[in-house]
């Protein structure tokens, strides 16, 4: 807000159809999802239609924003708005994950010890589940899902930690190239990041298959299975989204959309990528390791 | 700088959009604000209708109009429609209309996203209404009889209508988070040059804090209902003790959102009061800095006291003591705000137009609700009050004056600015008195009902509670129907009336009163310069 001059070029976008398309696509998708979850066969197709519309929306909305950016309609103030917006969006995502981490901590440190007879609520054990010993991992006094082997930390998860941390380094390398207007470094760094990200997702998929087939560790394996799949699943979903975003950014980098001074989209995706990286560290420590 | 030169400077651009495109594709904060307010008004009537059905049923003991599941479904719907459909969108509507005008910005920072956050609401409203009507169709499953808190295991057992409700909550959450991001960015990035944070109008401050709260707590609720969805359909056991989970976990997740939500509903109204009271007392707001500090304190402490809604679930003594003390501490900054309002009025040249009447009513009745809140915060006492009509009386005394009356005050205060016409003062005063008397008639007797032992969320009651329930139900009908008068006043003001000046109220200060009434489609395309004396 340094000078008044800057403000005479306030940018306000023209009326846009995308928000309303976004509303319709969300409504259709979720309506279909309710039907699908309650055994109505057409539900799946409605979900698919809604998601297609949603993809069309993302494509169209971002196309508009990119073309506005390329035709130099944005000023420093708009750029700052975008940055702040992305920052607070990531903050809200942090709290979304916090709900699941909170659930994990609550169950491990409070709920299970109670069920196991600890504290003044220990009477629960005497009355309901007097065979139950509290321990982690646990599938509860009802032994839901049958016997299972918990997922170890030092196999695939350790490799995945290495992969994601490296991808954090490669995206910084790409950013470093971008800041020097070195397109070759930028593209190579992004390609390496995407490759590492996809490799991560592939390993994660393999880990799930292994858990289901060899360890009998399923989503139904009591509260261990619930927290394990919920936390790693939502994280994996975020990595996948991040990889798609990186691919979009790679395409734009190849077209030369970014310059050392104008690359909000690149930074937004980079922040997002670091965010999934940090969440993974939390997962590795609290879900796999301890 | 004078406003007219500012618009002339910018006469070159824009063809203003017209017809349905203007509303559906809008990127204009004033149009989106209007949409928010109209949506909120329609939801107010739907939520009110469900409340009047509830009170009609409770008019006498026995089961007359509804069946128990439908009764509880109405209770659930009333709460969700009012909180997520009426109060939050109305507060967001005021924010959309007023924040850019107040800080001298041409629009919200992210206008397209602004439109998205509004248009998600009708989608969420559709899902919410589907969750209510689906059980009436064959194969629609059972009704949502859990109340708005959706506690498992009951909420795991309800039929497919619960899935509609869960997704409605997801949509409402997306809408709130996007709107909050937009408001924070607008306030931090779009203020006119010279307007520092501590010169920002109070309404902007309250919304800044509210938006922070929403961004921090709404995702947690989204996570909680997602776990509920998985427990219902995919065999997880977050809330199932047999699998090692705990139904109480959901209560913690819900109230981690639910308690700050109270401040989300309250703070924007506190912001409105911080403008209404100085205007009609013809004095600047007393203790601006302490108001800002108190508000931040309320929001911060409010984030860490959620479990006072769950004293009876069997927490350890240490935990309940902590939550009790934290809760009682909140009354200090809230009291500070109230005293600031009173000090603002002290020796002011006061007049009592409708917004001011509402403001005075809020100070008295909200304080009353706050005091019964302190009673409920005390653990041994709460063990007696828990889930009784006393709780119902308490939170209606907090939320009706604290949130809804504040919004009414804001609507009457700014309606001349929005429409360019003065509202009918005589009718508005009649509305105020009928409304406030109806409200007290409805909820005051419920304190005694609760203390005498009448539980809430139950369709029938002991005959010894009859008299107070009759009074309460009659009050509810007066209260409910009085809103038709509000509707009439609003429509009448939109259609015509005495022309309003730019300043509208004699004592009104701030940038929003420098633009004409009604403001042109685009305002502040050249930023105003901030005068030194402006707060």
From TrEMBL, chain A:
**SUPFAM superfamilies assigned:** Cytochrome c oxidase subunit III-like
Q: Which InterPro entries match?
A: Cyt_c/ubiquinol_Oxase_su3, Cyt_c_oxase_su3_dom, Cyt_c_oxidase-like_su3, Cyt_c_oxidase_su3-like_sf, Cyt_c_oxidase_su3_a-hlx
Membrane topology of the entry: Multi-pass membrane protein
Classification via Pfam families: COX3
Main location group: membrane
Q: Which UniProt keywords apply?
A: Membrane, Translocase, Transmembrane, Transmembrane helix
Presence of the UniProt keyword Transmembrane helix in the record: yes
Q: What EC class is this?
A: translocase
Q: Which GO terms describe its biological process?
A: aerobic electron transport chain
Residue ranges spanning the membrane: these are 20-39, 45-66, 87-107, 154-174, 186-206, 226-250, 271-289
Name all Heme-copper oxidase subunit III family profile domain ranges: 6-290
Q: What are its GO cellular component terms?
A: plasma membrane
| Subcellular location per the Swiss-Prot or TrEMBL entry | Cell membrane; Membrane
A GO term for molecular function: cytochrome-c oxidase activity
Q: What EC numbers are recorded for this enzyme?
A: 7.1.1.9
**Which family does this protein fall into?**
Belongs to the cytochrome c oxidase subunit 3 family.
State what protein this is by name.
cytochrome-c oxidase
Lineage of origin: Bacteria, Pseudomonadati, Pseudomonadota, Gammaproteobacteria, Chromatiales
TrEMBL record, chain B:
CDD domains hit by this protein: Cyt_c_Oxidase_I
Topology term for the membrane: Multi-pass membrane protein
Q: Name one Pfam family in it.
A: COX1
Q: Which residues form a coiled coil?
A: none
Its EC number is: 7.1.1.9
Where does the UniProt entry say this protein principally localizes? Answer: membrane
Class of enzymatic activity (EC top level): translocase
Q: Which GO terms describe its biological process?
A: electron transport coupled proton transport; oxidative phosphorylation; respiratory electron transport chain
Per UniProt, the keywords (alphabetical) are: Cell membrane, Copper, Electron transport, Heme, Iron, Membrane, Metal-binding, Oxidoreductase, Respiratory chain, Translocase, Transmembrane, Transmembrane helix, Transport
**Subcellular localization, as worded in the UniProt entry:** Cell membrane; Membrane
Q: According to its UniProt record, in which pathway does this protein act?
A: Energy metabolism; oxidative phosphorylation
Q: Which PROSITE patterns match?
A: COX1 (PS50855), COX1_CUB (PS00077)
Q: Per the record, what are the reactions this protein catalyses? A: 4 Fe(II)-[cytochrome c] + O2 + 8 H(+)(in) = 4 Fe(III)-[cytochrome c] + 2 H2O + 4 H(+)(out)
For molecular function, the Gene Ontology terms on record are: cytochrome-c oxidase activity; heme binding; metal ion binding; oxidoreductase activity
Q: Where is the Cytochrome oxidase subunit I profile domain?
A: 14-531
Positions of transmembrane segments: 35-54, 74-95, 116-137, 164-190, 202-230, 262-280, 292-309, 321-343, 355-379, 391-415, 427-448, 468-491
Alphabetical list of Gene3D superfamilies matching this protein: Cytochrome c oxidase-like, subunit I domain (1.20.210.10)
**What's one GO-annotated cellular component?**
plasma membrane
Function noted in UniProt: Cytochrome c oxidase is the component of the respiratory chain that catalyzes the reduction of oxygen to water. Subunits 1-3 form the functional core of the enzyme complex. CO I is the catalytic subunit of the enzyme. Electrons originating in cytochrome c are transferred via the copper A center of subunit 2 and heme A of subunit 1 to the bimetallic center formed by heme A3 and copper B.
Q: Which NCBIfam families match?
A: CtaD_CoxA (TIGR02891)
Q: Which family does it belong to?
A: Belongs to the heme-copper respiratory oxidase family.
Please report the name of this protein according to its UniProt entry. Answer: Cytochrome c oxidase subunit 1
Q: Which organism is it from?
A: Sedimenticola selenatireducens
